[in-house]
Amino acid sequence: MPAMDVTDIDKDYEESEAAEFGTVPDGPYRTVIAAVAFKWSKGDDPKRQCTWRHKIIEGAERGSNLFKNYSLERKHLKWLKGDCKRCGVEFKNLSEMQNRSDKLLGIECDVLARTEQDQQGRNWQRVYLQKAYPNGAPSNPAKPPEDDAPF
After folding, report:
1. Residues 66-75: tens digit of each pLDDT
2. What is the pTM of this model?
3. How far apart are CA 17 and CA 20, in angstroms?
4. Which pLDDT band, with edges at 50, 70 and 90, does 141 fall under?
């Protein structure tokens, strides 16, 4: 394939503003678990964490992502274990979860996004898993039939 000539859009690039990632507005969202990763937290003193990426599947923010970070410190493991159980997936240990995290992918969840402030005054968004639908989210309940009686 020949080299692409982009000189005709150089000026457009120079004049465009850089996009920045923002947070979605606080509130409830229907999501699907799109990714699970074990990684180090950011900052001066990195800690081990497990991150779930929730992709919003309904509403005005559809397609946006929310990130739920779980600390892997002993005192915080109960929250990760509880959310896995809520999703209908139980792991024997973290090693199994790390190797079989695909079992969580595709599970629909109701989450709540809420902006909070840390002790240094920085804002950050926290994501709370409210409900999970391991067997698929219920469809909208059918409306009751309208009564066609004349009185």
Report:
1. 999 999 999 9
2. 0.76
3. 9
4. very low
In a domain, 10, yes or no: no
Using the structure block, give the residue that is written with the tokens 């804002």: 123
In a domain, 91, yes or no: yes
Distance CA 18, CA 106 (A): 32
Which domain, by its residues, includes 64? 31-133
- Total domains in the fold of the chain: 1
Quick check: 62 and 84 in contact, CB under 8 A? no
